[in-house]
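The instructor's notes for this session suggest beginning with a concrete chain rather than abstract definitions. Hand out the sequence below and ask the class to guess, before any prediction is shown, which regions might be ordered.
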Amino acid sequence: MPYISLTRLRLRSAWYLPKFFWHAIRSNAQARKAPGSLGVELFNDAKLAFWTKSAWEDEASMRAYMLAGAHRKAMPTLMDMCDEACTAHYVQDGTALPTWAEAYKWLQESGRASKVRNPSPDHEARRFPPPRGQ
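After discussion, reveal the predicted structure:
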């Protein structure tokens, strides 16, 4: 059964956009080619928030991607660039990626806050709006 990975990141400042996009483009390319990848989607939301959802053959293939290459290099930089970061994982029937509304629900109900050095007041509580227009 496919393993779903969801993230929502919010940058502290627009000053981080060039560095963030450089890492995001490289990590996205890596994810699309990674062994076990079944699908990847990105969403550029309002107020410097960015969402990802990906489906994997299993947890091991997702972890292999996460801990290698461009994604591994990007992860430590997010601690400084972001004031909110949340992730959720689950197993589902079928390979279809969840909708953005479903991703929001999963992140709200079972997501966990990732470590950031300058958290917003809403970071730990995972208080954030749903994806715009979704």
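Then share the key points. The domain at 3-113 is CATH 3.30.70.100 (Alpha-Beta Plaits). The radius of gyration is 14 Å.
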